[in-house]
Amino acid sequence: MKPLKNIASLIPATSLAFAIVLGVAAESSTVQAAATMTLPDGARPMTAVELYTLYHDKSWRWPDGAGRMENIDRRFSAWVDGTGGQSWAEGRWAVTDNGRLCLDATWHATNGQFPAKTCFVHRILDGTIYQKRETGGTWFVFRHPVTKQTDEATKLIADDLVSQRLEAMKAALTVHKTD
After folding, report:
1. Alpha-carbon span 161 to 158, nearest angstrom
2. pLDDT tens digits, residue range 9-48?
3. Rounded to whole angstroms, how far apart are CA atoms 6 and 134?
4. What is the pLDDT of residues 60-94, one digit of tens each?
5. What are φ and ψ of residue 5, in 5° steps?
6. 3-state DSSP percent of the chain in helix, strand and coil, to 5
7. Do residues 26 and 1 touch, judged by C-beta distance below 8 A?
8. Chain-centre distance of CA 42, in angstroms?
9. Given the DSSP bridges, would you call strands 140-143 and 156-157 parallel, antiparallel or unpaired?
10. What is the DSSP letter of 169?
């Protein structure tokens, strides 16, 4: 699988944050190495309870930022600070019994606000969790039964990597807009 760098052309220039959210896992070497993976027969959709257990009150580290899925009100918040500029987001996250995790938020950047909804589909078989981004994604092993250091799931951590940075970024972008 090729990284989703071409998706940036679909998004306003300083809102590269959307590309990162849409391709959160695309930069992972695990994802790239599994480009030709076919979902194994018998893999079933993860339940909402399984997905909730996997993601609630976790931060998901990205190459240039992080997203946080809080338990309270299923709040989702994120920040990105990369070559495309700074962006932050607030919204909600949801899980379903057909294996979907969706991040639905409004992203804020110096050039405005942009709604974005990104969903990931999850399947499980014999303790292995498979994931793909909905619409155009490729299946890859998100987490092995015995977690490997290269698993994308290792980027889900209990520490809050978002709140403090989010507040600072909101303040910085607000000051920048009023200059």
Report:
1. 9
2. 333 333 344 444 444 444 444 444 445 689 999 999 999 9
3. 16
4. 999 999 999 999 999 999 999 998 889 999 999 99
5. -70, -30
6. 30, 35, 35
7. yes
8. 26
9. unpaired
10. H
State how far the Cα of 21 lies from the Cα of 152, in Å rounded to an integer: 14
Please, what is the end-to-end C-alpha distance for the chain in angstroms?
A: 42
Classify residue 178 by its DSSP letter. Answer: H
Interior angle at CA 154, CA 153 and CA 155, nearest 5: 85
Measured in degrees and rounded to the nearest 5, phi and psi for residue 108 equal: -120, 130
For residue 107, list its beta bridge partners: 89, 114
Instruction: Find out whether 140 and 37 touch, Cβ atoms under 8 Å.
Output: yes
Integer-rounded Cα Rg, in Å, for the chain is 16
Residue 139, both tokens: 């299946």
Amino acid at 141: V
Tell me how far the alpha carbon of residue 37 is from its chain's centroid.
Answer: 20
Reduced to 3 states (helix: H, G, I; strand: E, B; else coil), residue 104 is strand
- Smallest Cα–Cα separation from 118: which of 2, 6, 7? 7
The first and second tokens of residue 79, run together, are 């920040």
pTM reported for the whole predicted model: 0.79
Which residue type does 106 have? T
Residue 144, CB half-sphere, CA atoms under 13 Å: how many?
7
